[in-house]
Structure formats: C-alpha cells, structure tokens
Amino acid sequence: MLKSGSTIGILGGGQLGRMMAASAAQLGYKCIVYAPEKDSVAAQVCNDFFANKYDDGPAIAAFAQQCDVVTWEFENVPVAPLTPIADRMAPHPRALETAQDRLAEKRFVEGLGGRCAAYQKVDSTHDLISATDRIGAPGILKTRRDGYDGKGQWRINSGRDAEGLNVPDVPTIYEGFVEFFAEFSVILVRGKDGEIRFWDSAQNVHTDGILATSTLPASAQVAAQLDEARKLAGDVAAALNYVGVLTCEFFATHEGPIFNEMAPRVHNSGHWTIEGAATSQFENHIRAICGLPLGDTATIAPRIVMENVIGKDAAKALDALQEADAHVHLYGKNQARDGRKMGHITRIGRD
Ligand code: AMP
Questions:
Q1: Domains in the chain: ranges and CATH
Q2: What would the pLDDT profile of 92-123 be if each residue is shown by its tens digit?
Q3: Which of 41, 147, 241, 276 is 20 to 30 A from 340 via CA?
Q4: Mutation test of ligand 1: which of 174, 260, 268 has the most ligand atoms closer than 8 Å to its C-beta?
Q5: What SS3 state is found at 261?
Q6: Is residue 178 in contact with ligand 1, taking CB distance under 6 Å?
Q7: How much is the pTM?
C-alpha cells in the first residue's frame, strides 16, 4: 500500500489526468505529469511536470525515479521506453501493447471468446478491395494505431469507394459496419489482488465519432447484454493481470454484444461516476494502483446524463449551474477548437 504523501506519475497531460490528479490529491498523494507540452491541463493541477517527448527514454527514466508508481491517462505512449520502468508501473505496459494496435486487440479478444465486427488487415488498395469483396460494404477503414475520437477513420460505402480511396501510408484495418441498436461501455476496476468491480454501464451516443452523451440507466435491451459483456471485460482484465480502471466498448446488436475496442484507462463514458457513483472511476483507479481497498461502485441516483461540452459550447457551459442537479466540469483548455472536448456536464436525476 502506497502511503499518503507518496508520488504518482501520470503519463499524458489531458483531462483524464487532471481528474485523476484531483482524486489523488483527495487521498493525500502528490502527482507529477509527463507530457510533451508545457501547459498541459493535467499539469495545471499537479505538483510538478516533465515536458518531454514520449519516446525520450532518459527523460522517462528520470521521471519514474521521482515517482512511487507510474500510470497513464493517454494510451498512445510508446511502450519501448516504458519497459525499463515496468516494475514501477500500474497497469503494466503490456496492456498498452495490446490496446494500441486494433488488429492485435481484436485477435486478443477473440482468443478470449469475444466477438468483433468482421475485419481484415489492409496495407494497400488491393487489400482494401479484397476486404470489401469478402466482408462487404458499408464498412470503416481505420488506422491500426493512434486513432481517437473518430480520427483516422474512413467510411467506405461501396466497393467502388474502396477502388477510389488512396489507402493511407500506415497500417490499417477494414471493419464491416455493425448494425447496432445501441452502444455501451463496460468499465471495471481491478485491484492488485485480482478483485474486480464493475460500474453500471451507461448507454453512449456518439456524434461524428465523438462521445456526445452517456445515459443511465441503459435501456432494458442493453441491460440484457451486460452479463456477457462483463464476462469478456473481466477476462480481458484477468488475462492482462490488469491493475486499475479498464474500459471495453461494445455495440449492442440483436445477436448480442459485439466488442468494439478497449481503453486501458479511465474513460469519458465513466465521467458520470464522479457525482453518480459511490466511488468514481478516478478515485478507484488511484486506489487500485496504490494498493488501497477498492471503493463501492454502486450508482447513487435513478437517472444520470453526462453530456460532453465540445468546442465553442464551452463558453456557455457555466450557465448549466443554474440547474439544481447539474455538475459542470471544465478542463482548463484555452482554445475551443471544433470537435475538442472542453468539459462535461453531469445531470443527476433525483427521481
Ligand atoms: P472507434 O474509434 O472505433 O471507437 O469508433 C468511433 C465510433 O464510430 C464508434 O463509437 C461507433 O459509433 C462508430 N463505429 C466504429 N466502428 C464501427 C463499426 N464497425 N460499425 C459501426 N459503427 C462503428
């Protein structure tokens, strides 16, 4: 168990790190952020920061020297410089290795009995045409690495689109389009002793590939798929000997849950847990990596809606404070670019 006053290192400087640091501070820990930019929104609320590139091995080693445990909030950190400090990390970087490559991730999940959308590895226009022939269209071409919030994705509506598309010069994967009736995520926390706790699953709505809202309770049709999805997510965590919060995103289809992707970290669709659960995803992540007892994950209100504040909408986000049960979070970002997550609002329904 990490004693209070110890130092937690966070790789990544975004809002997830910012909210993680707030929970760490509540428990008496100090945080140091490691991110390439000097003015990261996580560093604004931390004790110290390293502004270095993620592939700078000596800087990563110097950072880890100052930390009792190192975790991450950003999953595209290269794994090689983390290998020498893996013993000090929670979760172990093997989780990053699996999650960073959509192909490796799908094979791993299928190996555990999970179902994914039909997919094929694509490295050329020829591969893409053969993938659309085999899997059919519509579908989505995705970069295998570094994609987030719908970036690095191209919708393919017909085989003709495939012929016309200049396949990007990076490894990609073609996925058949899943006819889902809802999207949901399973968020769990796993302790050092292997104990797993799940939060209730929100029903997620995405707009232009970006999460727009997470609503609880999820519909009865989604709730009927949770046992199967939780079983898979729990198996993923156990197979990785995972410590901390892990998220698996699913499509709810008439044939049952289809695994979309995992995020080996706290997740946007779990922001509602700050006010809506007995223990938030951020606090339980800190508890898990510090070897503290896990907190209760129970939902504490009958209806909860988390809405992301995107781009220019940030300017009016504080207006929501006039509502009795609205909780506004702003991430301290200076520039309100289109599609940028600036904050979120959680509305807690008391009845
Ligand atoms: P991703 O980055 O893979 O999570 O994709 C972002 C969003 O795009 C998902 O949450 C879905 O709304 C949509 N999407 C991604 N892949 C598929 C697919 N194979 N079929 C249907 N919709 C998809």
A1: 7-89 (3.40.50.20), 118-176 (3.30.1490.20), 182-349 (3.30.470.20)
A2: 999 999 999 999 999 999 999 999 999 999 99
A3: 276
A4: 260
A5: strand
A6: yes
A7: 0.96
